[in-house]
Amino acid sequence: MATVMSGCIMATQYNIRDIIFLSAWRDAFFFAWPIAFPTAFFIQPLVQRLVNKLLPKK
């Protein structure tokens, strides 16, 4: 998740073929993973419960 987030953020700022893209991507990754990791493990169960209530299994 953090990999995708940082890649998308950097792709809007720099050309992927530029060497600065790799440096900027690394910096964005180190910024994004502390946000993405807790989100994936702590917020996801809450969202899953909400989705299960809204879309019950048949």
UniProtKB/TrEMBL annotation:
Transmembrane segments: 28-47
Top-rank lineage group of the source organism: Bacteria
Keywords from the named record: Membrane, Transmembrane, Transmembrane helix
Protein name listed in UniProt: DUF2798 domain-containing protein
Classification of source organism: Bacteria, Pseudomonadati, Pseudomonadota, Gammaproteobacteria, Alteromonadales
